[in-house]
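Tokens in:
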């Protein structure tokens, strides 16, 4: 890779609750960890994150989401550092979120994010997480090596999903070395053994 990669360490993986109203999560924390933290603190709205592999920083950058929920639905603000070393707090209303995208500068390194904390009974949160995970297991390859959902849905008048386009245009039994199209969801490529790219 002709460039610089920044990997944030364990100090950027911490999650805390402020006054029972705001969750602050480091950008290196995993989506799953944030979902578990919200469950432990009886906070709803974060259930969908239990189904998304990735981190808070990546989730903000691409407005990650599934099952009709996205990062933008929970966000209060993003804390970031620019290339000059200035630490910024960017409120939600200054960020334009779109489907799997946002308008924040690519030069920013996200440090943490603040999220709305709304109380919800723990058993209801657990029930929703179980339902979402069951739905995911039925429709997506799990417990296999994949790159996740590969392509974004096209944004156009037809509202067609990318898996429909793949199914119509590519033989589903095609192989790319050890990479194959999942027979459960054709927008997922499964690594049978040693696929590298």
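Residues out:
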């Amino acid at each position: 890779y002709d460039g610089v990669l920044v990997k944030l360490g364990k100090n950027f993986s911490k999650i805390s609750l402020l006054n029972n109203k705001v969750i602050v999560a480091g950008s290196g924390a995993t989506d799953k960890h944030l979902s578990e933290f919200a469950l432990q603190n009886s906070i709803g709205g974060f259930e969908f994150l239990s189904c998304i592999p990735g981190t808070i920083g990546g989730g903000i950058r691409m407005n990650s989401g599934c099952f009709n929920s996205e990062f933008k639905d929970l966000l209060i603000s993003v804390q970031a550092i620019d290339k000059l070393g200035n630490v910024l707090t960017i409120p939600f209303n200054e960020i334009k979120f779109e489907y799997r995208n946002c308008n924040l500068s690519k030069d920013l390194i996200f440090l943490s994010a603040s999220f709305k904390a709304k109380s919800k009974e723990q058993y209801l949160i657990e029930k929703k997480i179980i339902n979402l995970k069951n739905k995911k297991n039925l429709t997506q390859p799990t417990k296999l090596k994949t790159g996740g959902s590969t392509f974004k849905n096209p944004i156009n008048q037809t509202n067609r999903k990318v898996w429909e386009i793949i199914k119509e245009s590519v033989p589903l039994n095609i192989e790319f070395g050890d990479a194959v199209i999942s027979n459960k969801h054709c927008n997922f490529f499964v690594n049978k053994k040693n696929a590298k790219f």
